Amino acid sequence: MSLSAKRPSQFKVFRRRDIDSIPQLAALPASERNAMKVVSAVLPFRVNNYVLDELIDWSNIPDDPIYRLTFPHRDMLGDDDFRRMESLLATNPPPAAVEAAAREIQGRLNPHPAGQLEFNVPMLDGQPVRGLQHKYRETVLLFPTQGQTCHAYCTYCFRWPQFVGLDDLKFASNEVDEFVRYIQAHPEVTSVLLTGGDPMVMRTGLLRRYIEPLLALPQVASIRVGTKSMAYWPFRFLDDADADDLLRLFEQVVRAGKNLAFMAHYSHPRELATTAAKEALARVLSTGATVRCQAPLIRHVNDRAEVWEDMWRTQVRAGAVPYYMFIERDTGARHYFEVPLVRAHEIFRDAYARVSGLARTVRGPSMSATPGKVVIDGTPEIMGTKVFALRFTQARDPAWVGRPFFARFDPRATWLDHLRPAFGEKEFFFEPSLERMKYSRENPLKPRTRLSLIDEVGVA
Ligand SMILES: *Cc1c(COP(=O)(O)O)cnc(C)c1O
After folding, report:
1. Where does the chain hold its CATH 3.20.20.70 domain(s)?
2. How far is the C-alpha of 96 from the C-alpha of 73, rounded, in Å?
């Protein structure tokens, strides 16, 4: 791996059908490449020349964290599913047969965790507004139609169903007008978060069409962009044909008196270590934008305290702000990536204890679940009972925020819906009101399943 700023003149993408033409894979056994083809028939795969040439350490395959982060691995599918898809592919089947088998397996990977259709659909003039999500009072999420892909895919991505075509994201053709009207109808909204996919896959001119109308709205104090582009394609901010124009757009936002905040997805310190990555981050900051960093804690990728300590230090040194450590969500190949809550808290605490106060802006480990963002504060013993101490940092009802609550300790729990109240209560304090929200008039869609405590689309 070279840390010099190689300047690929062009973005080059590699998908499933290109696996045999990725030069670095030629050295691997054919069985490994075959396993990739089997898994990527079910889960999305996409990588690019920068990730291949500068991020992955090819002398450390398969354990290299960036390789695990981007390349499919056999164990991401269950044994039966893997073998079934493997034998099907060996028969040189028609694409429709592969697709049908893939759909069936995908359907069992919890592609639509409960809550998806029951919550979060904003209404305007009695009609649901597509491409918007409004979960927490101050912040609206906007999913631009053309921003629904990424420069490369993370194998743990919780938005994977949209990349394999399971979710057909149908947005209104006049979506910019609609979301502006929605925000104006909701004076409590002060922050708009563009997310995806990755909005930075859009050309500057297109991005401008979404951002400029927001500059005229006095209620909007901050415009945020959720992105992995600084890690996966830093040249977006350096050499791409419209990179300079992009930076002028950022300056324009800042001049308009808005905080422009990048919610940058960095999974591993190596993503901050290349010359291109450092230059991209510096260039974004030079426009007056701020960069806040977040990622989930993922087995095989970043499940050691030293990795987070290093990452947070590097971010602070570069002028970025550590923001969230998330818990991996309940979907896709989660069995391959998940870390027990108790272990997640240990990793967080060990890393947090070793960095200066400037890096302790970070919060976590945090679950983006149906009722809100729940942080694990620790595992104290209270009157002889070991518990999880929990707290909302964001909630559907702002009254829930900052109120400690307790769950019975369970060393195997990996998500909020594995937890039960600590002291014999029937349910957690927020559950009755959450249940009522599900049936409220605001909500156009009837609930389908019993509520499970997971959220479908958050901001990981
Ligand atoms: C995390 C999140 C936000 C933003 O929360 P902040 O704590 O303000 O960063 C907004 N909407 C959704 C759905 C989220 O998951």
Report:
1. 116-439
2. 24
